Amino acid sequence: MRDDQIVIVGGGHAAAALCAALSEAGQGHRVHLVSEEPELPYHRPPLSKNFLKNLDEPIAPHKAAAWYAEQGIQTHLSDPAVLVDRDARKVMLRSGEALAYQHLILATGTKARTLDALPPSLTNVHVLRHAAHARNLRTRLSEMVTRGKQLTVLGGGFIGLEIAASARQLGLEVTVLEVAPRLLGRSVSAQLSEHVLAHHLSMGTKVQIGVRIDGYEVLEDQLRSMQVNDNRVVIDELILGIGAIPETRLASECGLTVDNGIVVDAFMCTSDPAVLAMGDCAAFPMRDGERIRLESVQNANDQARTAAAKILGREEPYVSTPWFWSEQGPMRLQMAGILPPSFETVRRSGATANNFTLFHMVGDKLLCAESVNAPMDHMMSRKLIEGRLTLNSAALADHAIPLKSLLA
Questions:
Q1: Whether CATH 3.50.50.60 fits 114-240
Q2: pTM of the model
């Protein structure tokens, strides 16, 4: 058994990006990729969008199986890691196989939050984290279209709203229920939240916010109804879009530091220098020292590059400006930076009411930008944030002034 192996646990974007980076450095022959899923790493954003609307659309892998073979990467699919022995530097798989490692990388992602009040195996209650979830949900939505059934979405976050928009485009009657006082309350500004609500209402989606939910009625293997405020609501199919929990079991059980994710430094190293963590499961320090955890493709890809550099003997700290995106029907949201606790907002209008950018300022510095159907504004916003420039609010708001000119 080789003692220089690199074992990557996880099958998401971060794992795929790290495989690519290590292969580019000629180190593919050292890599073992371990995943609980039967698929090789695949593109996940389409699962809540086009994939749900097209019965013929396949899962899109990052790389074909032949690529992994050519690079010498050994894949262990449907064979999750069950134990990490840090003293022996081994990972035990469910099959009983033991993988020795020089470097272990935990890219375990998140698991969907569920309702403790509901049994876990109800056939009409769904989450969306993996390809298997998406395939099952796509089939159910297709059947609902022909049978005239209604979809209820619990949770007004990104996943819930993306699924709601896709279902409306299929022609389904959709109701979104959110217990918080606004949609996307933990992710975007109040101004953008208002626009998102108006957008979904214009699509014909019923939206209720600030609701109280309890009184679940379960019969056999289905949720039949639940109490929403003072009303008993019949459930045909229910989507749980109530957030995600970092998958930290392996890290916790082997004694690594965990705090709303696997705690890492700027180089993706955990409390054990032989073990790194990255992507949705990693809690990392920002430039100001605050420790956060982000769930985005950009974060996964960028942290994979930082992890690859560390494994290859270079120290390149993770300092990327976070950015996110979401497609909800014809609306494309793009966010750059992190929304600060308090800020002043400058609005830059576009050609229509559905095309604008909100710049969130602290003093004369831009810390966050939220763009709606304005991709060029988003690209320039990222550069403005990264440059930490002194900016004039009036210039930002003036659509006649190109944002590119403010970079000088």
A1: yes
A2: 0.96
